[in-house]
Amino acid sequence: MSTEETVKINIESGEEEAEEIKSEAEPETEPEEQAENPEASEQKAEGEEEPKEADGAEEAEEHKDGKKKHGKKNKKDPRDEKIEELEDRVKRQMAEFENFRKRTDKEKSGMYDMGAKSVIEKILPVIDNFERGLENVPEGCDPAFAEGMQKIYKQLYAELEKIGVKPIEATGKPFDPNFHNAVMQVESEEYESGTVAEELQKGYTYHGTLVRPSMVSVVS
Question: Where are the domains of the chain?
């Protein structure tokens, strides 16, 4: 065999081997591609799901941040708590002072009324004597003198009325044990039973409270 024939055979055998290698390699690439395709599809599916997980994580972080912020808002500053405590203390002290003021004013008013009633009780006998003297002016008395005494009596009576002293109505009124002191019972055709027939001594009140009861006779 010549050298040219030997080279030709070698070339042909090399081409056949190359074709066989190529034919063997082609079916192997297809499964690799198919194997690669599921991975790609899985990666694609995973890639689609990843944003969802990322969104959920972001929402959880936002919710967590919102809770933290909300917790910070609800938490009071110690300075604000101290201010509220001081304001509450001041309000309590002001209320206590107002109650104390009202209580002292009431006590002062009671003491004033008690002192005024005591003075009025001492003045009332003087008023009684004035009335008796004016009712029994002797004959031949200087009219100017009697008129002057009458004016003094009216002035004194007016001043008592200004401070709240008033006479108790008695004659012709139903007997009231709270304001009348019955010293006798009488027969009367003018008044019904239980009615004050005559006032023997005037009674007085001070701002509605009894200073001295009226001394009266009552129809039996």
Answer: 165-220
